[in-house]
């Protein structure tokens, strides 16, 4: 008997998941760019869909969004989540899938993370550790190995 367990993908998303997620991202971006929201609180709000990730069964899509390089205001994020059924309907009309995917929205923090890593990498103590040692620099006696002492 064949079980109906969800397929676990240890190697990451399949090509189909990636392809469908990217198509959904394009559709969401186009709908958002048009700006004909049924909810007036989202009119004129700059929203960027940076990535969409699909579940293995393609029934759930998580869209990562930002407000043109910065986080969306909490009230805009809540309005976006409240309009998810309308956006799902728009996606269902434009993407041919067996089921219209359930849309979930999350704030994209990748830019914030990259900026924080850049800031950390520029700290003097990190830059010192990353720079190659100068030619002919004296070795630290505490770092010599037993082989070097012989």
Architecture overview:
With 150 residues, this protein is α+β, with helices and mostly antiparallel strands. The chain has a single domain, classed as K homology (KH) domain (GMP Synthetase, Chain A, domain 3). It contains 6 helices and 3 strands; from the N terminus they run αββααβααα. A 3-stranded mixed sheet has the order 1-2-3, covered by helices on one side. Strand 1 (48-54) and strand 2 form a beta hairpin. Helix 1 (15-34) packs across helix 3. The longest helix is centred in the N-terminal third of the chain and has 20 residues, at 15-34. It starts with 14 loop residues before the first helix and ends with a helix. The mean pLDDT is 82.
Summarize the SSE layout with pairings.
Layout: H1 15-34, E1 48-54, E2 60-66, H2 74-82, H3 84-94, E3 102-107, H4 110-121, H5 124-130, H6 146-149
Parallel strand pairs: 2-3
Antiparallel strand pairs: 1-2
Helix pairs in contact: 1-3
